[in-house]
Write the structure tokens for this entry.
Amino acid sequence: MDSTIVAILVQDGIVNGAIYALLALSLVLVFAVTRVVFVPQGEFVAYGALTYAALDSGSTPGSLWLLCALGALAFVAGVIRRGPVLRLAVTSLVLPAVVTGLTLWLAPLKPGVAVNAALALAIVTPMAPYIYRIGFQPLAEASVLVLLIAAVAVHLVLAGLGLVFFGPEGSRATAFADFSLSLGDLTLPGQALWILGLTAALMAGLYGFFGFTLLGKALRATAVNRLGARLVGIATAQSGGIAFALAGAIGALSGILVVPLTTVYYDSGFVIGLKGFTAAIIAGMGSYPGAVLAALAVGVLESFSSFWASAFKEVIVFTAIIPVLLWRSLRHVTLEDEEE
Amino acid sequence: MNVLEVERLSVAYGAIPAVEEVSLAVPEGGLVTVIGPNGAGKSTLLNAIMGVLPSRGAIRFDGAALGAAGIEARVERGMALVPEKRELFATMTVADNLLLGGFRFRRQAGGELERVYALFPRLKERRAQQAGTLSGGERQMLAMGRALMAKPRLLMLDEPSLGLAPLIVRDIFRIIADLRATGVAILLVEQNARAALQVADRGYVLETGRVTLEGDAGALAGDSRIVEMYLGAG
Ligand SMILES: Nc1ncnc2c1ncn2[C@@H]1O[C@H](COP(=O)(O)OP(=O)(O)OP(=O)(O)O)[C@@H](O)[C@H]1O
Ligand SMILES: [Mg+2]
């Protein structure tokens, strides 16, 4: 094994690790704000990937109808809970209608990477806050375990719906751009640069949002002290919706970034999400920088194990969690229901 | 005119009643105190008024029934609670805690911040420090400052002197008197009956969930039962 191979493996690992890092960040965020372990994150990756791939080939993605259906359900759920009808109508009926109109108009024109990516994000992202409003908002006071069970249920339902709306065949999209960067022996493909660049930009954006905007601080406040947040008038249901929306957007974007590299099936997202989850767990579900580092380590470990023992690569990656958990439990840093 | 009117309010934890048929009123700009022993239901009462706990009976703010209004709606109308456990955002800075206190009123936040810093100069010195690293007295000041950022018309304080050294307790009560002078109505829950009755106009004594005595703060401070139970021999 020479240094070129090592360099290629590391590069591969970091590119995949960047995706896992995005997913890990969104998992930590959703857990901190809502105490939900966001198991369906993988479905958002698959939905984003398949929606983008459909748009890339000039056809109308089936997920469009799912968006409208979930919006309608979220509207009904909101009205039953006596929410503000006008605002509910705008966010859950008008928005999907506008996105549907735009997609039906633009998709056949093959409008290019940027428009396709924006459309795919607009189709997939709102599903997350709709799902929050339908399934998780009524459970806001439930235990972490009940929320986890609900999250697993949502994952199974979304995976099933993925089969219905996208079919069993996999899809792959063309690369964003046809260029590559040569550094000595090493060639960095354009897609890898896109992934690294967008990941870094997104992380900087999240840092700015949580560090410097009132809304970002309100989300952090909800995570730090839920009762304190309610007492200053932060609607925790709204914080939850925003956290879900961010997670949905990050998941969909990850899918859009990945689908030019590899064929994605309706159920491919789960394993990708699980690796983000592994990183989040290694970081204790609490630290954002820790989750990013752990995700990069997971990516590199994965690329080396696929070189040495490709049949066992998933096994090796997921087994890596065991010593970490052992070490954590020995140090009594346990993950528990933080409510007193 | 009363800012707050509570009528026959009852609160229960499951089947166990904690507050039963309590009625009280806080006049505009007035300072009313509720005193009583541990476990009397004082915190339960404040939490129910703020909407943190569900209750039976009527709560009126500015003459309008609050009904099932959520906490956010009550904050928006001008109610604020400084809870017994303070509930600060421990890993965030003092300045961020205050900023978030004005979350519902973000447009006016700038002026309020200066007002709060003027009231609590200590908080201004410590504005970049994490709330979790503050001393007990500073935490109480921050909790009060955070509540004031919403420019409330009714400020409810749950045992602001809890766990503080006598000298700091004196500071806190001085600040409560200052606040009252700015026109905000205050509902003060205290175990430190002597200090509470000194600053208040009216007092209620709560025992095992029921009001057993009420009247002018001065009269209560002289009442033989109060003297015996809460004020000691001195
Ligand atoms: N979450 C809860 N679940 C069940 N019972 C509770 C709960 N919180 C309080 N209680 C009970 O309700 C009663 C009133 O409690 P509360 O905290 O309101 O008293 P308090 O007057 O504020 O006491 P203290 O002066 O010690 O703060 C107590 O008997 C208490 O044990
Ligand atoms: Mg109490």
User: Anything to note?
Assistant: The first helix of chain A runs from residue 3 to 34. The first strand of chain A starts at residue 180 and ends at 183.
